[in-house]
């Protein structure tokens, strides 16, 4: 068997693994990267990239019939679904070279396209090669999981791994799961002309602030998405071909459709790693890590989805940067979960960072303040007729500790709040910024202004002070 020694061995070539490999190699470390599947991982090939490309196509289709409020006669869009999917895969192909094996080999990374498994605490085997490394980084990501429902394994169903292989538009897409993936795809397929039904055991987007979710829910219903919330699925069965190819029997009634998308969650990929041989502890939610992302084996780190702290590409990238600092420079690098934003790319988008109201009550009791700014107070939103939404800021001791935005471009607007929370800025710092007019970015400053308004304009002491100064001015 071939023997290989290296500084860092990375297992998994998704977003996090690629970031570690490229960063470490460019800084002078010897790096081996092991990947048994596609370079770029889930995000490039089956997740973030194809879904956002599909959402963009759906937005164009929707815009053809949404101009009446501007005096533009609605037109029924003609959707060539096969060409929509060509656009999706063309987008993947355009980005793929950045994540390619050739690029990483040019950076000096040794790439092994095979499945890797631990054989000891400091050795991994892959493709007839035994790699001994000073440090290992596990970045194997996650995969979709299906719930245990009677009959589900007896019908054909889609996941995010197969959804983008479609070339014919579903007549009626039934989405099982009302989380971010399910809701994004439900709206996109509805806008592309499919009938869509969402079945969710609880409330859609249950992790998010109910006030923000209500704006998204109203839009989904207005666009014709059928929502079945608090719906328990008792059985799944095959039906006849066509619109009733699959049927979900609920606790009350049933839902039938031509296609079924299962979007009920994801599980970390750990089963092929032989972690016990490396003395690395893992549970069903992910590999156990410290706040420095070190596992129970001091030589081994875990990042991204497999670390069980969230399933976001940007989180994996953040993890990667922290691990590179720790491994290469021995710099303390502790993960701060409260500065990681999340976005659901519906229309309107919903973005959040930090603590929710419930978490604030638990942590601060009554010592926090909620400030809301409706988008109807923003001139750009009024001009574009996109006033359904709000900015919601939770503050403690004058600093934002949680921020939610629902509205157009919420994923971009959350960025300034992410900076503010990462750097510990006060609301006064945000109020002091100057935003271009008229932009949606003004909502950040406006929200800070709304926070200070009661303190300024409803303050008798301040008014008396102003009166005193005015009397003595020359």
Automatic annotation (TrEMBL):
Record's keyword annotation contains Disulfide bond: yes
GO terms for MF: flavin adenine dinucleotide binding; NAD(P)H dehydrogenase (quinone) activity; oxidoreductase activity, acting on a sulfur group of donors, NAD(P) as acceptor
Family: Belongs to the class-I pyridine nucleotide-disulfide oxidoreductase family.
Required cofactor(s): FAD
Residue span(s) of domain FAD/NAD(P)-binding: 7-318
InterPro entries attached to this UniProt entry: FAD/NAD-bd_sf (IPR036188), FAD/NAD-binding_dom (IPR023753), FAD/NAD-linked_Rdtase_dimer_sf (IPR016156), Pyr_nuc-diS_OxRdtase (IPR001100), Pyr_nucl-diS_OxRdtase_dimer (IPR004099), Pyr_OxRdtase_I_AS (IPR012999)
Signal peptide residue numbers: none
Covalent S-S links between cysteines: 43-48
Chain sites annotated for binding FAD: 52, 116, 140-142
Domain Pyridine nucleotide-disulphide oxidoreductase dimerisation: 340-448
Residues the entry annotates as binding NAD(+): 177-184, 200, 265, 305
Key words of the record: Disulfide bond, FAD, Flavoprotein, NAD, NADP, Nucleotide-binding, Oxidoreductase, Redox-active center
Name the record gives this protein: Dihydrolipoamide dehydrogenase
Keyword Flavoprotein: yes
Cofactor note: Binds 1 FAD per subunit.
């Amino acid at each position: 068997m071939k023997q290989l020694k290296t500084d860092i061995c990375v297992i998994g070539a998704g977003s996090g693994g690629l970031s570690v490999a490229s960063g470490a190699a460019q800084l002078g470390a010897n790096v081996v990267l092991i990947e048994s599947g596609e370079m770029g991982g889930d995000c490039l090939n089956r997740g973030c990239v194809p879904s956002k490309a599909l959402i963009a196509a759906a937005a164009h289709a929707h815009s053809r019939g949404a101009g009446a409020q501007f005096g533009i006669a609605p037109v029924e869009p003609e959707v060539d679904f096969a060409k929509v999917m060509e656009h999706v895969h063309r987008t993947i192909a355009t980005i793929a070279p950045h994540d390619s094996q050739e690029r990483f080999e040019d950076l000096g990374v040794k790439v092994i396209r095979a499945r890797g498994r631990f054989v000891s605490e400091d050795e991994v085997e892959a493709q007839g090669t035994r790699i001994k490394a000073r440090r290992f980084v596990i970045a194997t990501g996650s995969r979709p999981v299906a719930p245990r429902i009677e009959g589900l394994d007896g019908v054909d169903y889609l996941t995010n791994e197969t959804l983008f292989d479609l070339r014919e538009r579903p007549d009626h897409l039934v989405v099982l799961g009302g989380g971010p993936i399910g809701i994004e795809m439900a709206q996109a397929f509805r806008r592309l002309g499919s009938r869509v039904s969402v079945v969710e055991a609880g409330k859609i987007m249950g992790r998010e602030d109910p006030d923000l979710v209500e704006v998204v829910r109203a839009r989904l219903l207005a666009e014709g998405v059928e929502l079945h919330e608090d719906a328990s699925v008792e059985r799944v069965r095959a039906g006849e071909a066509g619109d009733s190819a699959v049927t979900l029997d609920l606790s009350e009634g049933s839902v039938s459709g031509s296609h079924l998308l299962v979007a009920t969650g994801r599980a970390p990929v750990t089963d092929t790693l032989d972690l016990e041989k490396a003395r690395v502890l893992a549970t069903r939610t992910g590999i156990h890590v410290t706040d420095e992302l070190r596992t129970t084996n001091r030589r081994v780190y875990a990042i991204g989805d497999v670390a069980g702290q969230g399933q976001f590409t940007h989180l994996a990238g953040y993890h990667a940067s922290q691990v590179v600092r720790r491994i290469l420079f021995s710099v303390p690098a502790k993960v701060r979960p409260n500065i990681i934003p999340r976005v659901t790319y519906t229309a309107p988008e919903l973005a959040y960072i930090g603590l929710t109201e419930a978490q604030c009550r638990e942590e601060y009791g009554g010592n926090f303040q909620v400030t809301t700014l409706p988008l109807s107070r923003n001139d750009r939103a009024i001009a574009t007729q996109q006033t359904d939404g709000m900015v919601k800021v939770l503050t403690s001791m004058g600093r934002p500790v949680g921020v939610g935005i629902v509205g157009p471009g919420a994923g971009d607007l959350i960025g300034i709040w992410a900076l503010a929370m990462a750097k510990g800025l006060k609301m006064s710092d945000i109020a002091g910024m100057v935003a271009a007019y008229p932009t949606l970015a003004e909502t950040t400053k406006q929200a800070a202004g709304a926070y200070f308004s009661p303190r300024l304009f409803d303050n008798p002491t301040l008014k008396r002070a102003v009166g005193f100064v005015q009397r003595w001015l020359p």
